[in-house]
RNA sequence: GGCCCUGUAGCUCAACUGGAUAGAGCACCUCACUACGGAUGAGGAGGUUUGGGGUUCGAAUCCCUACAGGGUCACCA
């Protein structure tokens, strides 16, 4: 869909069809697409769906429609029919006018806050392990979807829920008390999340060896787990935490603080941010209240052991636990509380988007159903933005097998590689150290973000650290390079883009029309990406457009062009391509450098 | 076992939501260039869209079926 031009064409086809055949098709029956390069024309109307209404074979209907269109509208200059496809050539003037209209810095972006308020949740890690490759996909995806929704006109609130309580935190705390000898991020120089993660691993190791001892003494595996002294310590610590024991709460705050400092450094490195943080320790009690009230209303039921369940068998699902027999909360409990709290705190909130891996699809199906049962009007206003796992050549990431790709390490590696390539190519010899660092970040992180976002979210994807991340071909650096080239051309032309004028009769060839079409369709691409919560739509569009530019550049002089009108038209194309692609890439969280 | 995803070139991914001869990148082969920025462009080769059936003017896309891979069905998160 080419924005204004296609909109105009759409109505022209509707009116002309009615005038020619006496019947008016529905909006949906008019299909307009880009004409394939092997045929002459710019836009193609698919006539098959209209043939029945026209009472003529597709070819005949297409021919009559084409003839009428050319006679009626001076901006449709030529038509051709291939089978049931009606190929139309639009006038040079209509293209030039459209390009003029697109020459604005905010091209593709809807007016700010012209649409409803949407909350986007992403990241939401546990506070016992450092962030890894999976979190990178999650964060880039959530952040990008937030930017895309904003560009589509929505007011966006970016949030995350921090799973800061529970047995997993106590494990790290116990291990640190036993083996830590008082070390801190300050004393070791280690990032806080890494330090705490190390003690989580240490706990697991000690736990395993105690189980092995137990089994050696003749216990069953389950008994050995229960008998493990270190596990008993963790449980008792959780109990003390829930009893608000001052010493435990103090340690909990200290160690979580270390983790947050570490996470914040990584988020800043990734270039993502949040408007508001929710903590499970704040919301789980609220969830319990809603579960109790649901029980009182007869929506849930209690088993003999005191646990509370919801029966979803009528909806084709199972029974689901909402509160343990000892009245402590499970994950679902706090999710109910958090969801309701968010709608209460944001009266304007229209919907919520949860960026969470596809292994939790069942969980969210259940959550949304429960919210509905509880009678929340916004229950249908929730969307689980599900994404596939990132897999390594040797299979899934397993922390126990040491195959986890650490987020900080990977980001550093990307920066390092980007810098190496820049230096090898001699591109940055006159850069200051500060500019070299900045460029390496833009290019290296851009490559990683693009790699993770160009794949449709729903699909699981393969990440091969050896060869997956490339700087050539369909990559962010390729796109960045061409945008830089555009900027360089405009600079050497020494023109003010907003003052570019050229005759509306200036002819545009196929390559120029392809560029114009790519620019003009960008606003609807943004809308499509917003509707589908899918950044890959943007990524693919940016790549197609910049690739077309790169090819165009090869055999079309721009600054050197001697015809004044053609030169300015090409400079305008150059400018709109640069703006369009920069805007698109910014929605993926990827910066375009000025030089590289 | 029940339910839900996925299956497209050697590999990693597209395909305007049912439209023309299924397209890119990587890898492989050939060519162009003293350059408005070569981190380049053009071309070649590579496909029974997992197999089989069906729906219709038309199917990678929708339906049925078989096979293959993944996820999920916890008083875990």
Please describe the topology of this protein.
Layout: H1 3-21, E1 31-34, E2 43-46, H2 48-54, H3 58-72, E3 76-82, E4 85-90, H4 92-102, E5 117-121, H5 133-151, E6 155-162, H6 167-179, H7 185-188, H8 192-216, H9 221-227, H10 229-242, H11 246-270, E7 276-279, H12 280-296, E8 301-302, E9 308-311, E10 319-323, H13 331-345, E11 349-357, H14 361-373, E12 382-387, E13 390-391, H15 407-424, H16 433-453, E14 461-462, H17 476-493, H18 510-520, H19 522-532, H20 535-555, H21 564-586
Parallel strand pairs: 5-6, 5-11, 6-7, 11-12, 13-14
Antiparallel strand pairs: 1-2, 2-4, 3-4, 8-9, 9-10
Helix pairs in contact: 1-3, 4-18, 4-21, 5-19, 6-8, 6-10, 8-9, 8-11, 12-13, 13-14, 15-16, 17-21, 18-20, 18-21, 19-20, 20-21
The protein binds one RNA strand of 77 nucleotides through β1, α2, α14, β14 and α17.
Kindly describe this structure.
With about 600 residues, the protein is of the alpha/beta class. Among the domains are: about 5-90, Gyrase A, domain 2, CATH 3.30.1360; about 165-270, no CATH class. Helix content is about 55%, strand content about 10%. It contains 21 helices and 14 strands. A five-stranded parallel β-sheet has the order 7-6-5-11-12, with helices on both faces. Helix 4 crosses helix 18 and helix 8 (about 190-215) crosses helix 11. The two termini are about 35 Å apart. The structure holds one RNA strand of 77 nucleotides.
